[in-house]
Amino acid sequence: DGVVVSEKVKSNNLDVSELEAEEKGAEEERPRESDSNILDVSSDYPRDKHISIQRHLADLEKLADLREDEKKPCPLCPEEKFKACYSHKLHRHLQNLHWKVSVEFEGYRMCICHLSCRPVKPNLVGDQTLAKMGAHYHCIICSATIIRRTDMIGHINRHVNKGETESRFITVRAPKSSYEVVKESATDVQVLPNHSTPQKTDSYFNPKMKLNRQLIFCALAVLAGERKPIECLDAFGATGIMGLQWAKHLRSSVKVTINDCNENSVTMIKENCHLNKMKVKLNIKEEDNDETVGDGEENSDTIEVTKMDANVIMHLRSFDFIHLDPFGTSVNYLDSAFRNVRNLGIVSLTSTDISSLYAKAQHVALRHYGCNIVRTEYYKELAARTVIAAVTRAAARCNKGIEVLLAVALEHFVLVVVRVLRGPTPADDSAKKVRYLIHCQWCEERVFQKEGNMVEENPYQQLPCDCHGSMPGKTAVLLGPLWSGALFNTGFLRRMLLEAVQYGLDEAQPLLKTLVCEAECTTLKHFSTHSPGDESKQEECGVYIKTPNTSAESYLVHGKRKSEEVLRGAAKRQRAEHSAEHPPFYYNIHRHSIKGMNMPKLNKFLNYLSEAGYRVSRTHFDPMGVRTNAPLAQFKTVLMKYSTPTYVGAQAEGPVHLPGEIQVGEEVPAAAEIKVEEAELAEDGKSGVGTAVFTQSYPTHCAAD
């Protein structure tokens, strides 16, 4: 009996083991069956290609297991879409429906798949439409499933541009041979082939922003001449070209930190540092001992590279110079920038959201900047004042005031450079300069609203024009709040011009000369670059600096805070120079030209306005703009006075004179005589004849540009 019992136990054990083996085999077969339909595969291992991705049509037919005497289903279609059929019909189906509409990549064909790999929203039309909507392609590189063939081709091209060419979920960097090397201001940087049209995860390099980089470099060079060494931050490094230019040219005067939150960009910044023979000091959190530079080994050729959010690094550390150049608006980073920036430091920011700043998307400007703006003739200066108003409010929240050193608005960007003045008093003074603007929509006259909290009965009285009295309805709009103070610091701009000449920045020099003229509101064309022999020493807070003989206001401090005497002296200088502040806004000479009259040359017109007793200059915001303190009525009067008729021939009586026979000196008297004759005819009750003579003498033509 014992033998029989033992044999039964053995047989039971064998049955149990066989059942367990069958269950394990079933569990192993389940994921194999679902691999063809499910794409969630671990990224640690190379994933198997989907069954729709094959090299040859024969491989796809082998997958279908074609046999002449049996009906086989299509491996890429569900049974409700394509029923099982014989081999000849299934061969045509695979060739025409799946193989011909495939996407080719590196010898593989990504055939269209009709399986239930992609979730489809419920459709009430029918099963046929539902099956058609479920057709898709499987990417050979990543786990994406894409419906359209053209979208799949673009998806593969984006992978190639980013260097992702292996069939894995991990990102594979492109080989160094696929990078392009770009040189700017004696600095070499590697960029991706798609640097001009990058994707979200790529590093962006825009050659059109070269002028922007040169202006920021000049501002940093001026600050480096005041105190050294200074700690500067490029919060959005991308390729790192801006920080590399700072470290390569200014050397020991600056300690450069380049930050970016994208891992690929940080890797590219490190490679560009080595390309320019710069040592890299990595972040403490990173564990790359080969490239880490110890504190005792730091020198002028060392750049610190960090990988973190821009708000985080500006909250954690203090800097003397911060530059913000995000994609779009920079208002999300202003609070962090002013939190730890040192006293008398500089914050520069580049805004590229020109669609909202230039009043093309007014609702976006209201959402980002809290400012109501409309499209005007001075829309570029309006954009600069909008950004400065947001900067002023952010600084005031941190008990800091600002002094605007530079404001530039060009085609692609708006650049604002401000100096930070610590303390509640400068913060209050700066906040008072944020006001509303009253803008007339008929004649485009404008004026800042007066200070005070009292409500005026008729705000239209503040406008110099009388459009509200002569036109029905409401004629003006309230824009803002905007910055109402100066946009430029003349002394700082002159020192920037000296730095541009010293470092050979040819593109920035013409713009800086225009900005100096605009800041002083003068028409001077020639500037002296001041040789070193013409410089004199100036003392501020016990520190001597070299300054040109021209009056350039310099803020220099040995420690973090200025003494009360220096602050009082700076306040006195600001009050003394307030009267010489450039007038706000400008007029476009073409916008206010007289119909049927030829305008004078712009430079001559500037002289005419200056002779009339007004301050006048050109502006970088508009090539045909005139910055002046003259009211619009006086502006039009001077323009009318020195304009000449477009066509002076075809008089009512007398021979027709060609333009070549008319002397230049006789044009204005002739116009004056006709005006007198017209007035006399009007007095005699023959104004209709006078009008006919005037119309025939001066046909309606547009003023020549």
TrEMBL record:
<dbReference type="GO" id="GO:0002940">
    <property type="term" value="P:tRNA N2-guanine methylation"/>
</dbReference>
<keyword id="KW-0539">Nucleus</keyword>
<keyword id="KW-0949">S-adenosyl-L-methionine</keyword>
<keyword id="KW-0597">Phosphoprotein</keyword>
<dbReference type="GO" id="GO:0008270">
    <property type="term" value="F:zinc ion binding"/>
</dbReference>
<keyword id="KW-0808">Transferase</keyword>
<dbReference type="InterPro" id="IPR042296">
    <property type="entry name" value="tRNA_met_Trm1_C"/>
</dbReference>
<comment type="similarity">
    <text>Belongs to the class I-like SAM-binding methyltransferase superfamily. Trm1 family.</text>
</comment>
<keyword id="KW-0820">tRNA-binding</keyword>
<feature type="region of interest" description="Disordered">
    <location>
        <begin position="15"/>
        <end position="43"/>
    </location>
</feature>
<keyword id="KW-1017">Isopeptide bond</keyword>
<dbReference type="GO" id="GO:0000049">
    <property type="term" value="F:tRNA binding"/>
</dbReference>
<keyword id="KW-0863">Zinc-finger</keyword>
<dbReference type="InterPro" id="IPR013087">
    <property type="entry name" value="Znf_C2H2_type"/>
</dbReference>
<dbReference type="GO" id="GO:0005730">
    <property type="term" value="C:nucleolus"/>
</dbReference>
<keyword id="KW-0832">Ubl conjugation</keyword>
<keyword id="KW-0862">Zinc</keyword>
<keyword id="KW-0489">Methyltransferase</keyword>
<dbReference type="InterPro" id="IPR029063">
    <property type="entry name" value="SAM-dependent_MTases_sf"/>
</dbReference>
<feature type="compositionally biased region" description="Basic and acidic residues">
    <location>
        <begin position="22"/>
        <end position="35"/>
    </location>
</feature>
<feature type="domain" description="C2H2-type">
    <location>
        <begin position="139"/>
        <end position="159"/>
    </location>
</feature>
<dbReference type="Pfam" id="PF02005">
    <property type="entry name" value="TRM"/>
</dbReference>
<protein>
    <recommendedName>
        <fullName>tRNA (guanine(27)-N(2))-dimethyltransferase</fullName>
    </recommendedName>
</protein>
<keyword id="KW-0819">tRNA processing</keyword>
<dbReference type="GO" id="GO:0016423">
    <property type="term" value="F:tRNA (guanine) methyltransferase activity"/>
</dbReference>
<keyword id="KW-0694">RNA-binding</keyword>
<dbReference type="InterPro" id="IPR002905">
    <property type="entry name" value="Trm1"/>
</dbReference>
<keyword id="KW-0479">Metal-binding</keyword>
